[in-house]
Amino acid sequence: MHPLAYEHLKKVLISGLVGPDESCDYYPCHFRGQDCTWCFCPFYPCKDQQTGGEWLKRKDGTSVWNCTHCYWIHRFEVASVLLEIIRGRGIKRVEDLERVRVSIFHELKDSYPPVKGQ
Ligand code: SF4
């Protein structure tokens, strides 16, 4: 995991939801009013196109997962339910979140199925 992602997720696990962060130079990177709690998504790269994410080809032929069109995790209700799931499982450390992130991803998808473009 990228060190910036680690530090951001560590802060979220301690302090909770961020809400819209209008002080960020990149706000809004998805849509106005977005929740910025999962700016560094714990599921990256989820590789699930139902979220709106997609594979992009680089010039050298390799692929990179692009989250630009994922609105799912940035909706307030989805962001807050994700935090509830994490807290409900007693997760307090980024390392513990990483270990169970796939099962949490599926649990969250079952509760709030992503709808492309929303
Ligand atoms: S597409 Fe959405 S859910 Fe998937 S890794 Fe990116 S931000 Fe996370």
What does this structure look like?
This protein is mainly α and 118 residues long. The protein has one domain. It is 37% helix and 7% strand. It is built from 3 helices and 2 strands. A two-stranded antiparallel ribbon has the order 1-2. A hairpin with a 5-residue loop joins strand 1 and strand 2. Helix 2 packs across helix 3. It starts with a helix and ends in a 7-residue tail after the last helix. The structure holds iron/sulfur cluster. The site of iron/sulfur cluster (SF4) has 11 residues, from loops.
Chain-averaged pLDDT? 94
Give the neighbour order of strands across the main sheet: 1-2
Q: Tell me the total number of β-strands.
A: 2
Helix content: 25-40%
Distance between the termini: 27 Å
Query: Which residues form runs of ≥5 with pLDDT under 50?
Result: none
H-E string: HEEHH
Question: Radius of gyration, Cα only, in angstroms?
Answer: 14 Å
Strand content: 5-15%
What sort of overall outline do the alpha carbons produce when their principal axes are compared? globular
